[in-house]
Amino acid sequence: MNNTYPLCIDLDQPGLTGFRQFISSWLYRGDNFNLLVDPGPLSTIPRLIAEMRRHGAKGLDYVLLTHIHIDHAGGTGALLREFPEAKVICHPDGIRHMVAPAKLWEGSQKVLGPQLAAAYGEIVPVPEGNIFFEEEIGSTGIRAFLTPGHAQHHCCYLLGDLLFAGEVAGVRSVVPEGILIRPATPPRFILEVALDSVERMLALQPKRMVFAHYGMVDTAVKHLEIARNQLLLWVEGARTVANLAGDEREEAMFAWLQERDEHYRNITQLPEDIRARERYFFGNTCRGMAEYVAAN
C-alpha cells in the first residue's frame, strides 16, 4: 500500500456556519491506479479537481461512493466531465438514482431545506455506462461491502488494512482531547441493520479507518466498538425520553447523553460554529431513533 495516501481533500462550505472539517474527499494514488472516495457536492467540484491536479493526479480510474447523499455524491456527474474514463462504484440500490437523479434532488431539498440544498448544488446525472457495483474492484485489491444503516444504499471499502467507512461508524469531529463521535441515524433507522453492518466491519479487523465526516484514525477497531456501543446506548436514551414532545424530547436526549456517553460529551470542546452544526444534525439522529423506538 502507498503510505503517502489516502490524501484528505477538504471541501469546506464557507457560506454555511460550521461547515469546515466536515465534508471531504479522499484521493488514493496506487502504483497502477488512481481513485477517489466520495467526490462531494457539485459546488465543491472545482476545488476538488484543482487539488487533484495539484497533487499530480492526471487521470482517475475509480470513484467509490460510500452512499448517494448529496454531500457525498452530488458532484459525481460533474467530476466525470473532467475524467470521463472513471468508473463509479455504487451500491446497487443507488445506481438508478445517480443515473436519473431528479427524485434524489427533490428528496435532498426536502430533507436539507432549500438553502442548504442550494449551497451544495444540483445533482448531475452519471452516465449509465460508467456506474456499477462489484465486490472485487478491478485489479485494485479493494473489496466493497454493502453496509446499510446510515442509509440503505451505504457501502464500505477495504484496501489492505484501511477501511473507507463512510458513516457506518457515525460522525467524528476533531477535538483537543479524547474521542468525539456520534451515530448518524436519520430516518429510516433500523437498529438491527445498523448493528449488523458495524459488526461485519469489526470482523475485518482494519487498522486504519476513514470517516466520511471526518478524518482518518489509526485505531479503527476501537472506534467501531465505540460506534456499536453508542447505537445501543442512544436507543436506550431514545426510549427513556420517548413520551416527551418533539423539541423537549431532543433537549432531554441531549442532557441524558451528556451524563452517560463519555465520548459524545466531548462536544463541549468544539468551536462554537462547529458545535452549532453538530447540534443541528443531532436532531436528525434523534428523529431517526425516535421513529425506530415508536415502531418497536
Tell me what portion of residues adopts beta-strand conformation: 15-25%
CATH superfamily annotation of the largest domain? Ribonuclease Z/Hydroxyacylglutathione hydrolase-like
Low-confidence segments, given as residue ranges, are: none
Q: Give me the strand/helix succession.
A: EEEHEHHEHHHEEEEEEEHEEHHH
| Number of separate structural domains | 2
Overall geometric form: globular
Span of the ends, CA to CA: 45 Å
Structural account:
With 296 residues, the chain is α/β, with parallel strands linked by helices. The chain has two domains: 1-140, Metallo-beta-lactamase, Chain A; 170-204 and 220-296, no CATH class. The chain has helices at 45-54, 70-73, 76-82, 92-99, 102-112, 114-120, 191-203, 220-240, 246-260, 272-295, and strands spanning 7-10, 24-29, 34-37, 62-64, 87-89, 131-132, 136-137, 142-146, 155-159, 162-164, 171-173, 180-182, 208-211, 215-217. The strands form three sheets. A six-stranded mixed beta sheet has the order 1-2-3-4-5-6, covered by helices on one side. The longest helix is centred in the last third of the chain and has 24 residues, at 272-295. It starts with 6 loop residues before the first strand and ends with a helix.
